[in-house]
Amino acid sequence: MPTVCIYEVFKRIALQRNDEEALKAIGWMSLGHVVDLTQEIALLAATLSMEHKMPMADSMILATANLYNAILWTQDEHFKGIEGVQYVEKI
What residue ranges do the domains of the chain occupy? Predict the structure, then answer.
C-alpha cells in the first residue's frame, strides 16, 4: 500500500470522526506492506495522471499497484474502467 493511502485514510477518518479512530485505521493498514514513494513510482504516476486525467494521489496509488502487479480495489470513481482496477460502486 502506498504511503499516500495512509495520508488519505487518516485525513478522511479524522475529519469524519476523530484522530483516535483515524489512528486505529492506520494501525490496521500498517499491518500490510507499506510502499514508500520512489522515483520509479513518481514517474509512472505522472504518466498515468496525464493519461487518465487523474489527481496526483490517485495516480500514485495506481502506479504503485501497477509496479507491484496488484489489483487495486476501490470505490473511487476516478479509477472506474482502468485496467488492473476493481471498482466497487458505493451503496
Answer: 1-34, 39-91
